[in-house]
């Protein structure tokens, strides 16, 4: 039986990845510190078989070398996804989005040949103005989270080459789906829209011409699964864009309203706070990952959004 070591595997995306691997017959070793204000919850892993759950910050795991040795693939999903809050709590963000990954990058010194998939961010590109964003676009993040995500990528790029292991970094934007955060001040664009509608507030849209790259969580899972099981990657570092759709924000809001069966939209000027970290509307090219995996996500999110809304109804 093959084994996946999934870091942050009790969180939103991590738990979806854990579920897919265990349902495919793999053993999963999940390391998750269950850190407050992240999306980690034991309930996200309920009913799954073949899981070893270590509830510790990765830096405190005593048998990390043993778990790394046992794994056929390492999947690093550790993150704090509050872009705006990170501006005011950069030390908390650096611990979760930078230093935890540095710990793994250096721990792999003893494991040459190991393969790792890292979940990065569209935010590493910042507010690029041009025809489209490719993997060769300059990396100039506009917010604290983007800086720390880029730092983590850089650690993996440097140490993978030094210690002879291989990393694929997946850069994607707004992700939605079951098990996403429902509580807290900053739960992401789509999560915030859904919560506002279900709690009787109008969705506030800042400007009418802004777009965002959006992807359904199960499409991210599919990419991870195919890269882990079908693609043999031995180059020290590869970055791949993942982008379900680049869609206008007002259309995202309308999808939420339609899925909820209620709600209204209001348009307001873009606040200075949001404007300073805005990533612009340049579309993201993801041809490279589609060719590599042979997978193209669906453009119809009607069912996916309805499932997400029902998850929110049960967890608000």
Low-confidence stretches: none
Number of domains: 1
Series of secondary-structure elements, N-terminal to C-terminal: EHEEHEHHEHEEHEEHEEHEHHH
CATH superfamily: NAD(P)-binding Rossmann-like Domain
Fold and architecture overview:
With 316 residues, the chain is of the alpha/beta class. The chain has a single domain (3-180, 213-245, 283-297), classed as 3-Layer(aba) Sandwich (Rossmann fold). The chain contains 11 helices and 12 strands. The chain has helices at 12-23, 64-70, 83-88, 90-107, 144-163, 189-198, 217-229, 249-260, 272-277, 287-293, 302-315, and strands spanning 3-7, 27-31, 51-54, 73-76, 115-119, 166-172, 174-176, 203-206, 211-216, 237-242, 245-248, 265-268. The strands form 3 sheets. The chain has a 7-stranded parallel β-sheet, sandwiched between helices. Strands 7-9-11 form a 3-stranded mixed β-sheet. The protein has a two-stranded parallel ribbon with strand order 8-12. Helix 1 packs across helix 7, helix 4 runs parallel beside helix 5 and helix 8 (249-260) packs across helix 11 (302-315). The longest helix is centred in the middle third of the chain and has 20 residues, at 144-163. The chain is globular and about 55 Å long.
Give the secondary structure arrangement, pairings included:
Elements: E1 3-7, H1 12-23, E2 27-31, E3 51-54, H2 64-70, E4 73-76, H3 83-88, H4 90-107, E5 115-119, H5 144-163, E6 166-172, E7 174-176, H6 189-198, E8 203-206, E9 211-216, H7 217-229, E10 237-242, E11 245-248, H8 249-260, E12 265-268, H9 272-277, H10 287-293, H11 302-315
Parallel strand pairs: 1-2, 1-4, 2-3, 4-5, 5-6, 6-10, 7-9, 8-12
Antiparallel strand pairs: 9-11
Helix pairs in contact: 1-7, 4-5, 6-8, 8-11
